[in-house]
Write a structure and sequence with these properties.
heterodimer, A: 531 residues, mainly alpha, 24 helices, B: 358 residues, 2 strands, 80% helix
Chain lengths: 531, 358
């Protein structure tokens, strides 16, 4: 068995680093637009100054987001080259469309930076809004790709054929025979998929594996994920900004800083009212419907149990049981004595056909090993994978409920901060009575905690919750990993992890310097942009 | 349908190479001017360094974006080639990746530590920025040399495994790499000369010319050596550009290099401001033609092996019917992004929003 633990950890680390910058990329423009709008209405320089500082931070952040994004994208094709098969099929359309979003994102950002203060403020807001729309589109499309890994839309009942508890993932748009053949060849060769797909002419010999290239865009899991993830990222970005300014106000008592906090807090409140409630609920429903193992992990359901409250939220029916791993295992038993070979035969793949197909693809299969693989009992495969998922239950369960707890802290803090900075009957007095003049800094810290921790844990639940598969119900990470041996070593992961950590920490330090050395940034632009 | 993806890839590569030529060249001019300012105590050189830096910053992100676009195009349109490259060129690609990761923060550090730390340390950061710029093609150019004349891929095909550094054993790589670096430095010099001339800063213009001309002179023998080497190691490309369909492009490039040389010498010796615009444009055109030859002349092959090669179709994506509507929408929006970026460039460089206050 190929060891992939260190590479999985490295990839997760890279994704987290990227996510930090993405959050600022999505959140800061909202704050900058709000500040410019206030500047437009009031003409007060404090708003414009803050918008400029945040713009410079956004610029470096974008650069760091781009390099960590490149890292993640390269990481995907270099460390997990088996995913190239997905990129060339199911993920082709969303990833290709993402290119247009990414290129326009940077073009509008550069235009915004060089013209800020030189053109009408209203026009600057429009340019930044266009940038933000492309940034959101980019996020939506990347989320669609990630969502396909979690809910492989367009594969119909293929996962269900292997795991009877799995739902159908949309209408089948794939050539099942070819997908099964590739999977069996990978299993029988004992090699990652890269060893197969790197051979010239393989694609031509395999031919069409997906009839509808737009399938991934019609994934209802992707819609819920996009709303949930993008709004979470915006909140994280905004909460970093609001906390930074609240802290500055707390230290210096300069009213200019408080004006920024006052401008951003209603925006945070609105998104906080929608994100964990409506968007979170939609996400939860999608998990319940499409990720039965993940839902069981989240609820710690080794055994099926009744909880009217959770059932009402999850199914809209308080009388339904929360399906646990015992029930999932029972469903595995439905396979009886059926073998993988029977499944292959059902889609027209005999052992000879598989051996011949493998040879055509440049892979020499050992006949005995192939026979062994075809004789694997489906029940055993199913039970083994369910057990591998169940082994992660405790971690996922606590991560999920810690996320919920911190989400509540953030939610309450957002309401209180808004109340503390404006006039809400009773609540404003209550908040100021409890927190006094420390209300902005403490509550914005509560928002920061209540957005960052749920995001970190939420992503953890999303990614680890789909294990033992990388493509839910279809492919394991071992099948997608690089054939390059040293790339899978702990030393390599440690080396790359150190490089990434150094770059990210240095980048964050640079962003701090930019935020505190406004004049140096403005030297890049002649006259600094006077507004 | 394999031709369209090949041309889309070519378009992205050309655009990327043009932009990165400017950023690599201006990055070095900025860093080396900073170092010389410190060594010679010539503070005016710091102004050159800052101006070159500003030009680099404007281009850096947009050029990088096109690098990412190339990755997606490769994986999406040419999955077999990408899977093969990430195997046999794992180390070179990693070098490029790490260099990208160093480059961007070092750019920020170079600017924001200016005047805040000692000149020696600051110059060192500048050098890190410049050298990381050189290291990116040190990784990525192996891919180009491998598809021109396989070394690591050949080793992999013959023995089933390739030495992680096998691509660096190829003479084609080294000559191509040096040619690339000298071309970038030359372009950077001519671009700096042009923008300095617009500022009416004659010393800056002269320094720009010096870099442009000096590296053009170094680039010429590299170009000849590369052409000669292709004659023995990548005959298909050699014959296509020397006697075949790419001969007019080859001839145009030689002619442009000659004109550029003359313009450069005249501009430098006579201090002619008017020449600098044409020199900058011609240097970029020379890069465009050179890269078009290097990449396009392999058609209809992707990987060249002597007088023949592996056809593009062998690496192409047949897993799906490529959705042409989506492809055309993407192309339209990519062109829109280029137009928006050009507007930003106009404001940044020609409306002088990015120039030093006098």
């Amino acid at each position: 068995m190929i060891s992939i633990d260190s590479l999985l950890a490295l990839s997760a680390f890279g994704v987290y680093c990227h996510a930090l910058f993405v959050s600022i990329t999505l959140g800061f423009p909202v704050a900058i637009m709000a500040l410019l709008f206030r500047y437009l209405k009031t003409g007060e320089e404090d708003y414009f100054r803050a918008a400029k500082v945040m713009t410079w931070v956004l610029a470096l952040n974008f650069a760091l987001g781009a390099i960590t994004g490149t890292l993640v994208e390269f990481g995907l094709v270099q460390a997990w080259p088996g995913t190239i098969l997905a990129i060339a099929s199911f993920a082709f359309v969303p990833l290709a469309l993402e290119l247009l979003a990414f290129a326009n994102e940077i073009a509008f950002l550069v235009l915004f930076i060089v013209t800020l203060g030189r053109i009408r403020t209203s026009l600057s807001i429009v340019i930044l809004a266009l940038y933000w729309i492309f940034a959101v589109l980019s996020g939506v499309l990347i989320t669609a790709v990630n969502s396909w890994l979690v809910s492989p839309w367009g594969t119909g009942s293929v996962p269900h054929a292997l795991y009877p508890f799995m739902p159908e993932f949309g209408e089948n748009a794939a050539d099942v025979q070819k997908l099964v053949a590739i999977k069996i060849i990978a299993l029988a060769s004992g090699l990652p998929l890269q060893a197969v797909i790197q051979n010239p002419e393989v694609a031509e010999k395999v031919g069409i594996i997906l009839r509808d290239p737009y399938a991934a865009l019609f994934d209802s899991y992707a819609y819920a994920s996009a709303l949930h993830n993008i709004s979470a990222a915006v909140i994280v970005g905004l909460s970093i900004a609001v906390f930074a300014y609240a802290l500055k106000w707390h230290k210096k008592r300069d009213e200019g800083y408080l004006k920024v906090v006052k401008t951003i807090s209603p925006v945070i409140l609105i998104i906080f009212l929608l994100q964990p409630t409506i968007f979170g609920h939609l996400m939860g429903e999608a998990v319940v419907e499409y990720n039965p193992t993940k839902f069981a992990m989240m609820e710690g359901a080794h055994e099926t149990f009744y909880n009217p409250l959770i059932s009402l939220v999850a199914y809209g029916d308080p009388s339904r049981p929360i399906v646990g791993f015992d029930e999932l295992k029972r469903r595995c038993e439905e396979h009886g004595d059926k073998k993988l070979g029977d499944l292959a035969l059902a889609v027209g793949l005999s052992q000879e056909t598989i051996l011949r197909t493998a040879k055509d693809m440049g892979v020499d299969l050992d006949k005995r090993k192939t026979e062994e693989i075809l004789n694997l009992k489906l029940r055993e495969i199913c039970l083994s994978d369910v057990s591998r998922a169940e082994a992660r239950t405790t971690l996922i369960h606590y991560a999920y409920y810690t996320k919920i707890a911190f989400g509540i802290i953030g939610f309450v803090s957002a309401i209180c901060l808004f109340a503390g900075l404006s006039r809400v009957p009773l609540l404003s007095r209550l908040v100021l009575g409890i927190f006094k003049e420390r209300a902005p800094v403490l509550l914005s810290f509560g928002i920061l905690l209540g957005s960052v921790i749920p995001s970190v844990l939420g992503w953890y639940v999303r990614e680890v919750g789909r294990k033992p598969w990388t493509v839910y119900g279809l492919l394991y990470p071992e099948e997608l990993v690089s054939v390059v041996g040293y790339a899978r070593s702990a030393e390599f992961a440690l080396f790359m992890g150190t490089v990434i950590a150094m770059i990210v920490l240095f980048g964050i330090f640079c962003m701090y310097i930019i935020a505190t050395r406004q004049r140096k940034s403005e030297e890049l632009i002649r006259g600094g942009g006077n507004g | 349908m394999v031709d369209l993806p090949f041309f889309i890839l070519g378009f992205a590569v050309l655009l990327h190479v043009i932009f990165v030529s400017i950023t690599i060249g201006t990055g070095w001019i900025s860093a080396s001017s900073r170092l010389l300012a410190y060594i010679r105590g010539d503070h005016e050189l710091e102004r050159i360094s800052k101006d070159a830096f500003r030009i680099m910053v404007v281009f850096e992100l947009f050029s990088g974006v096109w690098g990412t676009i190339i990755t997606v195009i490769l994986a999406g349109f040419f999955p077999a080639l990408t899977a093969l490259a990430t195997n046999v060129l794992f180390v070179p690609l990693l070098i490029a990746l790490i260099s990208i990761m160093i480059r961007i923060p070092s750019i920020a550090a170079f600017w924001y530590t200016w005047g805040r730390i000692g000149p020696r340390a600051h110059s060192a950061i500048g050098m890190l920025m410049a050298v990381s710029g050189f290291a990116i093609p040190f990784g990525f150019r192996t891919l180009f040399s491998e598809i021109n004349s396989p070394a690591a891929v050949a080793q992999f095909i013959s023995s089933g495994a390739a030495n992680p550094f096998a691509a660096y054993a190829s003479a084609v790589f080294w000559i191509l790499y040096l040619h690339t670096i000298f071309a970038s430095l030359s372009v950077g010099g001519f671009v700096v000369a042009y923008l300095m001339s617009r500022e009416g800063y004659s010393r800056g213009m002269k320094i720009g010319y010096r870099y442009g001309l000096g590296f053009l002179v170094l680039q010429i023998p590299m170009g000849i050596a590369y052409w000669y080497l292709l004659g023995s190691s990548s005959q298909y490309i050699f014959e296509t550009i020397t006697f075949g369909s790419f001969m007019p492009i080859f001839a145009s490039k030689l002619f442009i290099v000659l004109i550029l040389l003359i313009l450069g010498i005249l501009g430098y010796t006579m201090g002619k401001v008017a020449f600098s615009k044409y020199a900058a444009l011609l240097s970029l055109l020379a890069v465009l033609l050179g890269e078009t030859m290097n990449d396009g002349s392999r058609y209809p092959f992707f990987v060249i092996i002597g007088k023949s090669g592996i056809p593009i179709g062998s690496f192409a994506n047949f897993y799906i019917e490529i959705p042409l509507t989506a492809v055309y929408v993407i192309l339209a929006f990519l062109i829109m992004s280029i137009l928006v970026f050009l507007i930003a460039l106009f404001y940044a460089l020609f409306r002088r929003f990015l120039s030093e206050p006098h």
